[in-house]
Fold this sequence. Notes:
Layout: H1 11-20, H2 52-71, H3 79-91, H4 93-107, H5 112-129, H6 139-154, H7 158-162, H8 171-179, H9 184-204, H10 220-238, H11 246-258, H12 260-274, H13 279-296, H14 306-321, H15 325-331, H16 338-347, H17 351-369
Helix pairs in contact: 1-12, 2-6, 2-9, 3-4, 3-11, 4-13, 5-6, 5-12, 10-14, 10-17, 11-12, 12-15, 13-14, 14-17
Amino acid sequence: MARSGRAVIPVVLAVALLASRCSVFVPPPTSRLPAAAVAVPALLAGAPAAFADAIGDAAAKFSDATYPIAKKIDWGNTPIISNYFATESARNPKGVAKAVDALLESGLTMDPKLIKAAVAAHDKALDSALKDPNLVTTKADFAAVNEALARMIASANKDKFYKLLDAFPDNKQLQMDLYNQNDKAQAQAAFQTFKDLTSAVKAASTNGADALPVAPVTGGPIGDAAAKFSEATYPLAAKIDWGNTQQITKYISEISAKNPKGVATAFDKVLETGLTMDPKLIQAAVAAHDKALDNAINNPGLVTSKADWAAINEALARMIGSADAGKFKALLTAFPQNADLQMALFAANNPADAKAAYDTFVALTKAVSAR
């Protein structure tokens, strides 16, 4: 699968991709609403100026109706959501991989300016949420996130985005579990505002007209270093069953429960770093992941081809190289207990192979720093 090798590629490489593109698709804690969030992943809204007032008005009404629901939630302790993420990839790894592939394909059709606006809104919302004991953002920031997401999503190709509504396995059951946690009358009223918002969105859709073309950059010192890194790490990655990565799954499920504020702070830094990256290089990195997933889905262990693995690593290296160096460096230690995870991953491999691969990683980081 399109991920980093267990022993030698820091989780921060994947995190950087999330910072740049994926994180804008999945609302942070303060915008994952039970009840009307039968809703939130599907906030469809548009960009054309002629529809701006309709979208803004509908998004404001949606936020007014759903914020009281969001405010009641302790976002550091959301067992229904946590259980879904912890178990679904183990139960149906191929289904989850296909859903993520659909997510990337939809994202590639979105307007990069609206993506950046949505990331910035999330970043600001996390800043205010970190001041609240239950990680609840302010009403103003909550509303800004919803409107920014709506406009971003409406810029997507409609067919590709609609496929996401039922792409994730057991998503409907998750939504019903969330819905049933709330007062039914309040939830239904909020859901009505969501339907009104989707209507405004559909009317304003640009259907992917403003997406960036994919333009991979290859060669040079970064290309040479990335090729050596890929050559050394692919044998390690090819041994992994990416549908059953227990150490990574355990880390994700446990650390957010143990230290929710620490994880939220780390994601805030992810978003801040992503905002400094070159949109064209982000697009190329997402496209490389999309292609790799296409080829990995039907392979045992969800392992992609060696060529796609190499393309991902080079695209990620170039994307990371475009980020503010200080902000990216802060990510290396941002996630709680990340060093322990890295050591556990390193120990799962032959020490000599892992060390040799790590040396190529160091050489790649130097090439990126010297860009």
